Amino acid sequence: MDPLLLPVVLLAVAAAFVLSAAAGFGGSLILVPTLALVLGTKSGVALAALLLGANNLVKVYAYRATLPFRKAAVVIVLVAAGAFLGATLLVSAPERVVTVAVIVGFAVAFLLETLDLTRWRRAGSPVLALAAGATSGFSGTSGPLKGLAVRGLALDRLHLVGALSLASLVGDLTKTAVWTDAALLTGGDCLVALVCLPLMLGATFLGRRFNTRIGERGYTGLFWTVMLGYTGRLLAGL
């Protein structure tokens, strides 16, 4: 990595960790494109998974009192299964088709949220969770689908962030294991993660502090802002 780019990368890492801790997800929205630009697509996506996975360990600790293991168990298992399939087999639909499907899913979920059709949201969570893991396995980010899958569990703000943190953790660790075995991740990447540890600690607790202060309505706004950010990124790739 060019030493001149290191401050930019560290700034992106810190911003990604704060956003991820505040909203429960969204770190890949910043981190994946930044690292892909600096390191190349495959290496950037792999390193992003490693960094986000390590950061999710810190997030899970920070939200340890509000981790809904039972309610989120199915979603978490399906995210991990999808991530394994996507990362191992590298099988995907054409990128344009995946992009359109994710955007349509976002629009439908927003409509269900607006109309408060809770039963439909819950019924769709398992399907979205599996799709989230699979898309994450070959694109490096599952933000929109993962957010929709966990949102469908109808949890309060802190438990929602806890569930997102758990789902993100298992997904990123699954991808990291697969890509380490495929030699996409090296000892140097692990050293980068170790160097970023102070950022993980500081940014995670800063993000959690922000989350506890904004209330349910503020968090709903933050959640859909992150979703719009993902959708804008997808639209830009069409």
From TrEMBL:
What's the domain of life for this entry? Bacteria
**What keywords sit in the KW lines?**
Cell membrane, Membrane, Transmembrane, Transmembrane helix
The primary site where this protein sits is membrane
The transmembrane residues are 30-52, 72-91, 97-115, 182-206, 218-236
The listed locations are: Cell membrane; Membrane
* Tagged with keyword Hydrolase: no
Q: Give any Pfam family that matches.
A: TauE
**InterPro entries assigned:** TM_pro_TauE-like
Topology within the bilayer: Multi-pass membrane protein
Q: Which family does it belong to?
A: Belongs to the 4-toluene sulfonate uptake permease (TSUP) (TC 2.A.102) family.
Identify this protein by name.
Probable membrane transporter protein
Organism in which the protein naturally occurs: Streptomyces bambusae
